[in-house]
């Protein structure tokens, strides 16, 4: 049975890039290595493998701005073409785009692939460029909507609290791209938060992580219809690698520990959680925070 996922090991990445080269570069005499560019580390990679771990299809998504993205390097091995694998790669990349807050998705289609992308809802915007002096490419666009499970009303309420009460969150343009009660994903303006090395400023990473953790607690209180003031009591962050491009933060229910029920008894609660921050598919930083929720005082 075929499986669609991101490459996980160095060997898998080599197989992933090899198929990309064999389909998109080798037939036109391009050297091995020409199938890669400087954006690999900050991009999202998906591949389809068979039961023997052979790579059958590949594709890449990159964020071109906070709310836009581009699909590139789509390739299906010759023996697997015509079985819907290209469609599965596109669907996987579009799903990733949705939870990242991308609303405008683009790609450059070879002339012989125009009909394929049109059937998937992409609109041709006209001729783009000529590759290797012979392969016509056309610009194509598609508007992406939120995942159906995204709780937009709750997310907008939290976003309003941030932007109305914390000026830095508005300056950083912190947004919630996805929240379903089990997972919260946030992101911010890549250009505003870059340092002199053209990577995300460490202070911006810490701020995004802190507010994402605070936001998770806020959303849980809202869902449980509880009240309380949220205060960061203790925090630690470990930076694993620079965040190139546009980073994002993720909080998952599995990484949260604490009991909100104490608030019903008029007692303070303590919520411990972990926020993971990413550059593309790569883990770039880990934030651990302990948030105190101060119970609302009973009215006399």
Describe the model.
By secondary structure, this protein is of the alpha+beta class. Helix content is 26%, strand content 36%. It has two domains: 3-143, Aminopeptidase (3-Layer(aba) Sandwich); 152-295, Thiol Ester Dehydrase, Chain A (Roll), CATH 3.10.129. It has helices at residues 10-24, 85-99, 114-119, 152-165, 167-171, 202-224; strands spanning 3-5, 44-49, 55-65, 68-76, 104-110, 123-131, 135-143, 175-179, 183-187, 228-239, 248-252, 257-258, 269-279, 282-295. The strands form two sheets. A seven-stranded mixed beta sheet has the order 1-2-3-4-5-7-6, sandwiched between helices. Strands 8, 9, 10, 11, 12, 13 and 14 form a seven-stranded antiparallel beta sheet that branches. Helix 4 (152-165) crosses helix 6.
Task: Present the secondary structure layout.
Blueprint: E1 3-5, H1 10-24, E2 44-49, E3 55-65, E4 68-76, H2 85-99, E5 104-110, H3 114-119, E6 123-131, E7 135-143, H4 152-165, H5 167-171, E8 175-179, E9 183-187, H6 202-224, E10 228-239, E11 248-252, E12 257-258, E13 269-279, E14 282-295
Parallel strand pairs: 4-5
Antiparallel strand pairs: 1-2, 2-3, 3-4, 5-7, 6-7, 8-9, 9-11, 10-14, 11-13, 12-13, 13-14
